[in-house]
Design goal:
CATH architecture of the largest domain in chain A: 3-Layer(aba) Sandwich
CATH class of the largest domain in chain A: Alpha Beta
Oligomer: homodimer
Strand content of chain A: 5-15%
Distance between the termini of chain A: 15 Å
Number of domains of chain A: 2
Chain lengths: 281, 281
């Protein structure tokens, strides 16, 4: 998905938000905004948002020296999501359609996104998403694909959400590879975070090779690309991966909550919608 | 009032909004964003927002060649406000405290601000502001100052709001000079707009010398400065003039609706509050 002009002021907001997360030094934050502002003229409207996100968060790291500004907040989100994990497992076990309920829970986790402006309340939002209607629900196609599937690539998004991904992965009952970011970027799930989330107990962890808040195939490792192309089923979580992969040449199932007006418009759904969408090759 | 870091992403939003108002050519709008982004590093945090606003809107004019992107919308707002003017005059005439009601109407007009993100509905907003409690109301000081006043300087803000200013100016029952911007900037009131609003019937129009969306004393004409310093009473309308004048060395009565979180915080009021505030010298 290509950039929209509205993404540009949003980049400045992201830079400010990440800057404040990384430091309390207002001069450094102003430097981050200066460098982000200067970078705008180099941005092609043919880029995707994760490509620019990568540049912004590297500016934040370079200026502040803080390589993982979201570290403590990620730890808190893992704790909070693990606290409600047993209750959510029970909800899945007691539901009529266990797979669909697990999908809902995995999408509910997608509210934990610190790259967007919206605030959230994990427990409250999960409960409301369990009742929310899907705006796009390609469930029968997903189920039929899942039945004939041996290998699944599951591309992670945010930390905390990752704990809920575990619930869905268990429910998929197939061999799953879980792809993580190569470095800390916003609150996206890295190898270390995936282990802290307990994902190594249910999936084989793989490094996407991406240092951006969303998979960019051109920047992925050859190993990841091979898995991406060969897997029977690919599940992509969240907005960043959607922005990176929405024009790719294979079938992908996108699971996300549409939290920004540009993505909602692109998907032709209302802001806040939950989505399970098949992208065809 | 000095800049806040949050003003910087807001500048990019203003550039985008004004760019879209001036042209539908996306490449030109991108150029406006590029130039605005590049300008950020030259911005001192000791500046005021109107100083930066002036630069942004000159970028918009230079890139698009459109010197008055808000022209047709300003004409529409004058028509809409003139349509409800007779009704508002009746409300003043029938009210217990005519002056206070006229002040409320003048503040109500301050919703017509195209420099901020909020949308508005003139008729609906006026009616609700007529009932809204003031968050700051230095009314007795204002009245006592008005009683001993011979000369008033009234600094205008937005077009449309200007039509409502006429109601207050009539109710002040003193000699009033009404200051306008020197050139079209956002939807701020210029000489031409003041005449279209009928302000020349109740006040002497004067040019502030300012090409910014808010008075900046350093950039005003000597004639304006003399009037500013010598007038018995100065009334400043809106956020832009507040940002420009909140640190000045004379008494000013600020009449505004606090529409942005930075200004609300600065004034220690909730967003959306209406205010009549005495600034002491």
């Amino acid at each position: 998905m290509k950039l929209h002009l509205d993404c540009i002021p949003c980049f400045m907001e992201q830079a400010l938000r990440a800057g404040r997360m990384a430091t309390s030094d207002e001069k450094q934050i102003k430097q981050i905004l200066d460098k982000t502002g200067e970078m705008i003229k180099t941005v092609s409207m043919q880029s995707t948002a994760p490509e620019i996100g990568k540049i912004i968060y590297s500016i934040v790291s370079n200026v502040t020296g803080n390589q993982d500004p979201y570290k403590s907040i990620k730890q808190r989100h893992i704790k909070e999501t693990k606290d409600i994990y047993p209750e959510l497992e029970k909800i899945v076990a007691n539901s009529k359609d266990k797979l669909l309920t697990a999908i809902r829970i995995a999408i509910a986790g997608n509210v934990i996104d610190l790259g967007v402006k919206k605030s959230f309340d994990i427990v409250k939002d999960v409960k409301s998403i369990l009742k929310q209607e899907f705006a796009v629900l390609d469930y029968s196609i997903f189920k039929s694909q899942l039945e004939k599937t041996e290998s699944i690539l599951y591309i992670g998004d945010n930390v905390g959400e990752s704990v809920f991904d575990k619930i869905l992965i268990k429910e998929l009952r197939k061999s799953v590879k879980y792809a993580v970011r190569s470095i800390p970027i916003i609150n996206d799930v890295t190898w270390e975070d995936a282990i802290a989330s307990g994902l190594d107990e249910v999936a084989e962890l793989i490094d996407s090779g991406c240092k951006s808040p969303g998979v960019i195939l051109d920047q992925s490792t050859p190993e990841f690309l091979k898995i991406f192309n060969k897997s029977d089923l690919v599940i992509s979580k969240g907005q960043g991966n959607f922005e990176g992969l929405s024009d790719c040449n294979r079938q992908v199932f996108f699971l996300l909550k549409a939290k920004c007006p540009i993505i909602s418009n692109h998907l032709e759904v209302a802001e806040g919608s939950i989505i399970l969408k098949e992208h065809k090759s």
